[in-house]
Amino acid sequence: MSAPAADRPIRVLLVDxxxxxxxxxRVILEVEEDIEVVGEAADGERAVSMAAALRPDxxxxxxxxxxxxxLAATGRITGAGDPDGPAVLILxxxxxxxxxxxxxxxxxxGFLLKNGTPEDLIEAVRVVARGDGLIAPAxxxxxxxxxxxxxxxxxxxxxxxxxxxxxxREREVLALVARGSSNAEIAAVLHVGEAxxxxxxxxxxxxxxxxxxxxxxxxxxxxxxxxxxG
Length: 230
Fold this sequence. Notes:
By secondary structure, the chain is an alpha/beta fold. 47% of the residues lie in helices and 12% in strands. It is built from 10 helices and 5 strands. The chain has a 5-stranded parallel beta sheet, with helices on both faces. Helix 4 (97-106) links the parallel strand 4 and strand 5 (110-113). Residues 11-129 form the Response regulatory domain. Residues 159-224 form the HTH luxR-type domain. It comes from Micromonospora mirobrigensis. This is Two component transcriptional regulator, LuxR family.
């Protein structure tokens, strides 16, 4: 997805089957000058149609909903083939590995629990809106700890791109991203500036057809760039 223009607010679509929950999220988000809630949906089917019609920057998506669940809806939204399509941020009550990995496989750019703080939610919306993907330390550790167990890689379609498309430096950057390193940490390891790291990360994502750093972690483990225990 393309980051929203600096001169307009981040457009958010709220998707949750509970009206009170949606209302609470709206109150939290709309106090921020750089965030605008453009619509609400109570089920995944409605979310898919509203995402196409309203073209938000971020879809804040619940998991367990009637008609079409949030994971299936996420796959339909991110799989529409629109490079400027919205980022999907999963927000759920259920701290379950199957939901986490299914969400990442479906193309979600972030995964949060509803027991977080309003500040966590606001920052997460900003992070995924600028195309970075939400790699909170706890989420990164969860992904890596699962992938680092031999034979534990969650099932799902592999990305078709190859690391052969990357330069040696880009492969190095991807490996560091997969280990959960921040841009600042990567810059320190490689003795370059953070701006240079951001450029490398952007090129890696573009070459491999990945949406964000979350998918980059999955890709690196799927393709053996980072080995279990390495």
